[in-house]
Amino acid sequence: MPDTLTTRALNRATLARQLLLRRSPLSPLTAIAHLGGMQAQAPLAPYTGLSTRLENFKPEDLSTLISERHVLRAHLYRQTVHLLTAEDYLDFRPLFAHFGVRGVRAYYAKDLADAPIAEVPVLARTLLKGTALTRAELGKLLAQQWPKADPSALAFTATSQLPVVQVPPRGLWGARGQVTVALAEDWLGRAPSVSPPDAVMRLVLRYLGAFGPATVSDIQTWSGLTRLREVTDGLDLRVFRGEDGAVLLDLPDAPRPDPDTPAPPRFLPEYDNLLLSHTDRTRVIPHDRPVPLPPGNGSTQGTLLIDGQWQATWKLTGADLHIHPFIPLPPATREAIAAEATHLPALD
């Protein structure tokens, strides 16, 4: 009979995998790979996410990785923008190729008029070859071929089906820029290094290393992929049970700390993947509040973990930090939050 893991045990195990129990000496590049990528819809969110996870993190470290093309911003899991290592993007992107057509049909088909869904990315690839274009620029060029279609719908149709990356200056610390895309093959100059069957096994193992122990449904919630039980059945994994009887899978040697391990306060950006990547989110969300995605660049507001759970939101207004807790905060907890706030990159 598999061992049972309490919700608190799952919380501490996941916090350990997420580098949130204690700051890690990992490099930013290694940490991004370990986490399987970081949510980056808000372009500066990964800077906050890394500052709360790593020792001695400096924003320029990540900006350099982006500028030198070791990491990149692109749509991947759940069709949302993530910060990924170049290798992970190249290897995992083929697994998500079919999502683009689905999104176009769901949201933009009526705006395409006479533009065939399959032909738009073909022309877009030619237009993007050897250059980078904003969405507005790409849509305008595509509209020359299909003038009855909405240019924004044309741009979405193209970029959702092509392997494109968002290039700097967007995503660099202290810089601003429109979403500008380039073909991944041009930007990175290399091809995937593993086959799709190997890539999906790597993806599952990467998830468990960063978010486990977890159910198959959890892995599918994080990635957006389906039929992953066929993959997990072929892997050497340890099996646990949750308090609700759910079957939890894990890497045999992954850390599972004592449930009483202290969890210090941690500032997360808006929409950190920790809060989004399980079907049952109770291991980190003890209430029914929706995870917020406020407008912003990802460095001035977000969520706050207290004793390992999302129990407050935070916002920077100039140099003033505002904490909005959902529970009473004892003086010692307030002091710990104030000390942790000094690690926010925007406060430097």
- Strand proportion, as a percent range, falls in 15-25%
Strand order of the largest sheet: 10-11-12-13
Total DSSP E strands: 13
Helix count equals: 14
- Could you say which overall geometry the principal axes of the C-alpha atoms support? globular
Distance between the termini: 51 Å
Q: Give the helix proportion (percent range).
A: 25-40%
Enumerate the spans where pLDDT stays under 50 for 5 or more consecutive residues. Answer: none
Write the layout of secondary structure elements.
Layout lengths: L3 E2 L1 H11 L10 H7 L3 E2 L5 H7 L7 H9 L3 E5 L5 E5 H7 L6 H9 L12 H9 L4 E2 H9 L7 H11 L2 E3 L13 E4 H5 L7 H16 L4 H8 L5 H4 L5 E5 L4 E4 L15 E4 L31 E6 L2 E9 L2 E6 L5 H11 L7
Parallel strand pairs: 1-8
Antiparallel strand pairs: 2-4, 3-4, 5-7, 6-7, 8-9, 10-11, 11-12, 12-13
Helix pairs in contact: 6-9, 7-9, 8-9
Characterise the protein shown here:
The structure is a single chain. It is built from 14 helices and 13 strands. The protein has helices at 7-17, 28-34, 45-51, 59-67, 86-92, 99-107, 120-128, 135-143, 151-161, 184-188, 196-211, 216-223, 229-232, 331-341, and strands at residues 4-5, 38-39, 71-75, 81-85, 133-134, 164-166, 180-183, 238-242, 247-250, 266-269, 301-306, 309-317, 320-325.
